Amino acid sequence: MSTRNRILIAIGLFLLPILVRSLYFYQGFYSNSKIQQPDYAQYTVPVPPTPSHSQKAAAAAPSGKVVVIDNIHANQFEPSEIEPLVTALSSLGATVEFDDGAKKLEMELKYASSYLVFAPSTAFSGDELRTIQQFVSSGGRLLVFSDPTRVLSSYDFYGNQTIIPDVNFVNPLIAPYGLTVVNDYLYNLDTKSNEGNFRNVKFVDFATSPITTDLNMVVLYGAHSIHAENGTSLVSGNETTFSSLTDKGSKLVPLALSSDGLVLAAGDFSFITNPFNQVADNALLMSHVAEFATSGERSPLLANFPYVFQRPVSLVATGDIELSASLLEPIAGLQKTLKATNIPVNVRSRTAIGGDAIILGSFTPSDDLAPFLKPFKIELEDGQDQITIPGFGKVGSTGSGILLFTHGAKSNTLVLLAATTKDMSRLINLVASGDLSVCVLEENIAVCNLVLPDDSSGGFDYFPFPTTESPIGDLPTPEGLPTPTLVPTPSG
């Protein structure tokens, strides 16, 4: 076979597969046939449900409301995300503070009306949990928001991922109040009961509560379910709303309130973020949540000093206590502390009608001091080395100071007792510092150690408090508290 024929055969074998593929995939020439197209004129794009009510106008601004937002537990949110809620709180006259850890939580919550926690990723300490429980017991509002999309992820050396849900850290906060967040997410496959996605669930079943007033529908874009053993299930899903944990339904709850009405637990906080707060009645629900956070009234507790007064304070010395030079500087510090809370302190010879009072007294009995000790059933005797406080025990007079606090609708009174002028100076400095950590507290009685480590005559460190009006509400007057007497003004 000639070389020319070999070349032709080689070219033919090379072109043959190309020709076969071309004939197989491209049979004939292109012809412009009519292609069926969608009927765009009849097509409608699904839109989120619109609100059934306009957002509620802000009510008259309450006085002295402070809302503290937790931001020290690796919280899975950005402050800009919750701007709609912050705006709603501010429109109600509240001051919003983000806890940055500069102060102890105990100090932050002394003057707060409510405490908000969003998707924490680190645990609260035992002291913090006790502080929060004391805060709630005094009437403070606790709002805890979790979210199944806000989780903490970690990787080991081999690249294995560990996901830690926020429910691990929110449940210790709300468990004492009969509430538990489940580590799941709610979903609904019924297109009539979801908003474009099975995890965007519509809710139309609401309990009777100020938080759910006028709500017809809310949409939550990813929510945990919540078990409310003794509380109120504020929002419930329908029979086609299921839990990812069990793939079962039956009135699953994403929003619940504790039985005492002080703790709100939410399995989602998309309804307070843009743009989801504009869907259905989410904005109205958000405004109700803001009202809940600012509508509580806290009972005054001695542990919350200096936020225990709400009226001008008369400082009165009784018995053998004299306002000597050694007491003037501590009293000036006490005035500065209360001034930071918008409470003026005036030194007077008697308490004033319509005001609060601080009473300075010694362990020596006196007629003008006795009425203020009567509510505590304390009786003083001359020359005694110990004082018996019912329900508390015996307290030695040397190196000890005693604080007694009573509150009422017309007057709140703090009594300071010390054996000597030197001890009274130290006790006033201690109270002015606002840190009662060296005191043993039992409700509204405190026994404080006034012996300094070096036994010097110096005082306790003073530090200023943030300026805010007192959030303390009126409470019944205890029996036996003396009626304050009116102090005439210079004009008569």
Residue runs with pLDDT of under 50 for 5 or more positions: 456-470, 472-481, 483-492
CATH class of the largest domain: Alpha Beta
Termini Cα gap: 140 Å
The shape, in one word, is elongated
Note the total helix count. 9
CATH topology of the largest domain: Rossmann fold
Mean pLDDT score, rounded?
84
User: If you compute it from the alpha carbons, what radius of gyration comes out, rounded to the nearest whole angstrom?
Assistant: 34 Å
Structural category is alpha/beta
The profile of the biggest β sheet is: 8 strands, mixed
CATH architecture of the largest domain: 3-Layer(aba) Sandwich
Give the fraction of residues assigned to helices: 10-25%
Number of domains: 2
Fourth-tier CATH superfamily name of the largest domain: Class I glutamine amidotransferase (GATase) domain
Write structural notes for this entry:
This protein folds into two domains: 229 residues, 3-Layer(aba) Sandwich (Rossmann fold); 148 residues, Chitobiase/beta-hexosaminidase domain 2-like (Chitobiase, domain 2, 2-Layer Sandwich), CATH 3.30.379. The chain is built from nine helices and 25 strands. Strand 22 and strand 23 form a beta hairpin. It is 21% helix and 22% strand. The protein is an alpha/beta fold.
Q: What's the SSE blueprint?
A:
Blueprint: H1 3-25, E1 66-70, H2 83-91, E2 95-99, H3 105-109, E3 114-118, H4 126-137, E4 141-145, E5 151-155, E6 161-165, H5 167-174, E7 179-181, E8 186-188, E9 200-203, E10 205-206, E11 218-221, E12 226-228, E13 232-236, E14 241-243, E15 255-257, E16 263-266, H6 282-294, E17 313-317, H7 325-339, E18 345-348, E19 356-361, H8 370-373, E20 386-389, E21 393-396, E22 400-406, E23 413-418, H9 421-433, E24 439-442, E25 445-449
Parallel strand pairs: 1-2, 1-3, 3-4, 4-16, 17-18, 17-19, 19-23
Antiparallel strand pairs: 5-6, 7-12, 8-14, 9-11, 10-13, 13-15, 15-16, 20-21, 22-23, 22-25, 24-25
Helix pairs in contact: 2-6, 7-9
